[in-house]
Each structure stands twice: as structure tokens, then as C-alpha cells.
Amino acid sequence: MTDKKPENTDTNNTRATSDSDKKKKRTKFGRNKHALKYGIAALSLISFFTTSQGLEEIISSEHSLTPYLISFGIQVIVLVIGMHLANILKTVRKLQMETWKRVFIALFALIPYIVSVCFSSFFSYTFLANQAYSNVRETDYNIKIESFMNEEIANLDSLNDAAGKVVLAQVQNYIPQIDGILQNFQVAASGEIGNIKNSLTLNPTATIPQDVIFSTDAITDASEAQTTRLRVAEAALRTSASTYGIYYSNYKSNYDALMNAENPDSLKDSIETMKTGIESDIQSMREQQRILNEQVQDQTARYNMLLQNSASAVSSHFESLIASDNDLLRAYNLIDTSEAVSSGTIDLQNIYNTIYSTTDVSDGNVEQAILDLQSIITAFLRQANTENVDDTALQNLSACITYLGEFQKYKALSNKLDTFESTVLSQVYVIEYPSTTSNITADAESTDAENTASEDTTAPIAETETSAEQGSTLVASPGEFAVNHVKQEEWIEIRRAQLGEFINMVKSLPNFETITNSATNVSLETRQYIRLLNKNDSYRTDTLKKAYELNRQNLEKISSIEQAWNYLHSDFKYMALYCLFVAAFLDLSSLFVGLFLFFTDETESENISDVPKNSSPETVSTI
Questions:
Q1: Integer distance in angstroms from the first to the last C-alpha of the chain?
Q2: How far apart are CA 211 and CA 599, in angstroms?
Q3: Which residues pair with residue 351 across a beta bridge?
Q4: Burial class (CB in 10 A: 0-12, 13-18, 19+), 305
Q5: Where would I find the H helices in 95-136?
Q6: DSSP conformation letters of 42-88
Q7: How confident is the model at residue 138 (pLDDT cuts 50, 70, 90)?
Q8: What is the side-by-side strand order in the sheet with 427-432?
Q9: Pick from 11, 199, 330, 349: CA 20 to 30 A from residue 1's CA?
Q10: By C-alpha distance, which of 222, 203, 206 is closest to 214?
């Protein structure tokens, strides 16, 4: 016999209580869902403003609503699709159609969402990054430019020095040929000077005889006034005769110097001085003749013939000496204009010492030494008969001229680098931003007031000049770095000029290809320098590219979008990365919250489906 068991009322009561608690929890979480949605709406509103601000620069029309309308449309897509993307994909997955069609339909939701998120996040990042770097951007740029120039100046100096050593080694290879050419010119010069000497004859009259001079001692019938004038004329005659001896002495000295010169080197230092002295003597003798003639023309007819005869005798001696001086002057001019003599008088040893001196980098004699060497080679190439000179010699000499040109570049750049290091790299810049200028000025005024009120008169260690109008302060001590406080605009102009000077120095670097390709008979040390130059054969191009990019990205006016992109590649990119994270979070938060709500709804649905419905009381069998 079976009996029905009584219904378990405790179990039913427990289930009822549990269902009631779940309903309360769902009601409470429902209110939290609304709070999450409000928070996502607030983040979307923030993203709306940041995106529109980032768009304003490229949408240039003034007072335009276009950036705000674009940002609004983008935020609607990001917010709505982000919140419901999981439900959309779930709905698409349940569609009864082929897989490729479902994927195609899903893409209609995914593609606009992905594009909108990227668009919104990028322009939000642009605005946030430019705001974050607004008061430190030039400071970061300044550090970047200074680091670049310090590093590249060291590289440039090293490569220029290597190029100079290779050039010097190559010029040394041509020394024997140049020395031979010089000796040939010296032989030719000695022959020309010998011919010029043989064409000259020494003027034998060293003094003017006293018996040709009119004397007033025999005058008996002249008046006192007449006698006085005659004595003046006689004095002029005797003065001219005495002066003649001085001019003749000068003439004889120049004549002997020419005759005693054994080679061009003994004349090279004095030839210009001798020519100038001869021309001066000729002019003075002409003046002496003029004075003498004036003195004798004023006398009476009775004594005129006697005076004129004496004056003519003295003048004839002067004319003879002037003619001899003119012959000597023409001889010196022939020597001075002779190409063989000019080339033959170059002191090759002095040129070697100048070029190879390591302490003579900035000396002007270096350029003169190079010009002298070039004159030897070019004179030889002009005078030499090509049939008597082999092609190899001509090629070698031409190559030597090329190397001398590269040597000049090396010397010039070496001087520029020294100046640049001492005047530019020793400068330190502190940039004053508009927001801090007023504070700095107030601090300076406060400091001045304190100094005025103070009774301490101790002299400061370093003198500081401050200009509130110009916004620049220079603190400098001998041998130390100079600290410059400059405004943003001033700093940009200063750095532009310095970077332009650096670019010019890179362009003036010797040509590595020209130096290394024709290098022959080099030592082991020189070969190492050649390898260094070959390794850096693209240095000029690469460095100029870096300098141009540095100037454009840091000193020129570029869009805020490009500036924001550059922050991600800078040495100070951590703040930019943080701004990018914030911008992405503003737009992706709706997706994250949407996914969270989707999974919580799914979990609740599963919990509800697991609760059994209230069944009728069980039938219990009884015995």
C-alpha cells in the first residue's frame, strides 16, 4: 500500500526566499547599470570636446561648427555601437544564412566603429599631447638640438681630421716631382738673371767735378743785391752736386745687389724694396733739377751764360744717373715679371714646414703656401711641352692640385669647427615661456628690492645683466659656459642660425670619394683613415638629412597633428604615450562597459533558467 508524502514546505519557502533575494539584487544592480551608462556618456562627452579641439586646426574656417558636428557624429557611432556591439554580433551569429554573409553583415558594424574609434582617439590624442607639452616643447627641442650638434660636431671634426691626414700623406707623395720642377725653374731663372746682368753697364761717374760749378769769388762789378742772388745760385749748384753723390750711392748699392745675386732666392725678399727705392730716387733727382733751374734763371744776362753752363753740366750728370737708374729699374722689372724667376724663388722647404705643421692650423701662411705650390705646378703645365712630359706626370700634378684644393677645405673647416665649439657649443639656453615671464619679472623686482634694502655690499662673483624688455639674461665668466635666458621667439631664431651654420660646415667637408679613390702608396696609419672615410661615405648626405628634419620638426611651424606624432618618437615620449592611452580609453570605454553589461545580462539569464518552476506536491507511496 502506498501513501502520498506530504509536501516539503521548508524547501519551498527557501526557494521562494532565494528568488526574492535575486530579484532584489537584480533591481540593485540595475540601478548600477544606469550609473555606468551615465559615466560612459560623460566620457563620450569629454571625447567629443577633445576630438573637436584636435580637429579645429585642420578645419581652418573661423567660427565654424564643422569640427563639432564631425566630432558629434563620430561620438554617436562610437558610443552606440560600442555599447551594443556584443548584442549586434550575437544577433548576426543567430541569423540563418551562410557564414560569409554573416561575416559581411558584421563588418558593416565593425568597420564604421573601428574607423570612428581611430579617428576620435587620434584627434583627442593630438589635443591632449599638445596641451601636455605646451610649456616644455621648446625646452625638449633645445635639448634635442644641443645633443645633436654636440654629437655631430665631434663626428665632423673626427672625419675632417682623417680627411686632412689622408690629403697630407698624398701631397707628400708628389714632393719629389714638385721639387724637381722647382729645381728646373731655378736653373732657368738663374740663366735669365745672368742675361739681364750682362746687358747692364755701371755708370762710372760717382761725383760731379767741382770745376764745373760757377764761383762768385771772382765777381767784382756786381751790386750787393746781384752778388747775393749769385751766391744763392752757387749754393744751389753745390747742394745739387753734393746730393748727386747720395743718389749715386743708392744706385751703386742696387746695382751691386743685382750683380752679386747668385740665384733667385737671394733677390726675392728685396726686389720690391729695391724697385721702390729706385723710383723714389728718380723722382727726387727730377725735383732737384727743377729747384736748380729755378735758382739760376733769375740772374742778370751778364752772368747768365756762366750760370747756365754750370747748371747744364750738373743736370747732365743727373740725366746720366737717371738713365742708369731707369736701366736698373727695367732689369728688376724683368726679373720680377719672369715666370721662371717667380716660380724659382719659392722656398719649398718653408712650404713643407707650413703645410705639415700641426700648430699652424689658423695661420694665413697655409693658404699662401698652397697658392705657391699651385703656382709651381700650373706654371710647369703651361710651359712644358706635352711631347716631353709623360702623361703620368701630368696626371700626378693635376691630382696634386686637386688634393691641395681638398686640403684648403680641411683647413678652413678645421678653423670653423674650432670657432663653433668655442662660441656656440659653450652657450646654454633657458627658455622663458609667456606664462612664467611675469613671475620671473616679479621675482627679479623682489630680489632687486631686497638687495637695495640690504646693507651687505659684498661684490658678486659673476656679473649678471638683465633686460626685462628683451627677456634675456646672460651670465658668463671667463672660461665657463654662458647661460642665456631667452624668449621662445628669440630661441628659435638663434637655433635656426646655429643649425644653418652647422649645415654649411657639413657641406664644406672634403670630398671623401675624391680623396680615397686616388690614394696611392699610403702608410698603414693612412690606410686606417681611408677605411674610416669609406665607412662614412654617406655621412654628408645622412647628416644633412637629419639636420633638415631637425630644423623642420623643431624650429619651423608645423601642424599640431604632426607635432603630436613627433612626440611619440622623441626622447621624452612617456607623456605622449600616456596621452594616447587616455585618448584611447575615452573611446574604448563604451565598448568595455558594453561587453561587461552584455556578459552580466547573459549570466543573469542563465541563473534564472536554472531555477525550477513550482511543481505540485509530490505523491508519496506509503506502505
A1: 4
A2: 142
A3: none
A4: exposed
A5: 99-132
A6: HHHHHHHHHHHHHHTTTS-STT-SHHHHHHHHHHHHHHHHHHHHHHH
A7: confident
A8: 427-432, 482-487, 472-475, 464-467
A9: 11
A10: 222
Helix (H, G, I), strand (E, B) or coil at 485: strand
Euclidean distance between CA atoms 412 and 504, whole angstroms: 12
Residue tagged 631686497 (cell numbers):
450
Q: In the predicted model, is pLDDT for residue 33 greater than 90?
A: no
User: Is the confidence at residue 423, as pLDDT, over 80?
Assistant: yes
Distance in angstroms (rounded) separating the CA atoms of residues 519 and 140: 44
β-pairing, 482-487 with 427-432? parallel
Give CA–CA dist 348/265, Å, rounded.
11
**Mean pLDDT, all residues of the chain:** 77
Q: What is the percentage of the chain residues whose pLDDT exceeds 70?
A: 74
Element (H, E) at 427: strand 427-432
At 441, the amino acid letter reads: T
Between CA 615 and CA 425 the distance in angstroms is 92
Name residues whose C-beta falls within 8 Å of residue 302's C-beta, 6 or more positions apart in sequence.
none
Closest CA to 270 of 182, 345, 186: 345
Helices 574-610, 9-55: crossing angle, 10 deg rounding: 150
Q: How far apart are CA 493 and CA 323, in angstroms?
A: 67
Q: Are 168 and 357 in contact (CB under 8 A)?
A: no
- d(Cα 280, Cα 284) in Å, to the nearest integer? 6
The region of weakest confidence among 22-31, 121-130, 337-346, 350-359 is 22-31
Distance, CA of 123 to CA of 247 (rounded, Å): 94
Task: For residue 524, give the C-alpha cell.
Answer: 698603414
Mean pLDDT, rounded, for 158-180:
83
| Lowest-pLDDT choice from 134-148, 385-399, 406-420 | 385-399
- Nearest-Å Rg of the Cα atoms of the chain is 51
Amino acid at 446: S
CA angle, 349 then 384 then 270, to 5°: 40
- Alpha-carbon gap, residue 533 to 170, rounded angstroms: 15
Distance CA 452, CA 454 (A): 6
Residue 246 pLDDT > 70, yes or no?
A: yes
Alpha-carbon span 138 to 563, nearest angstrom: 12
Q: Which residue has the cell 565593425?
A: 110
Dist. CA 356–CA 364, nearest whole Å:
14
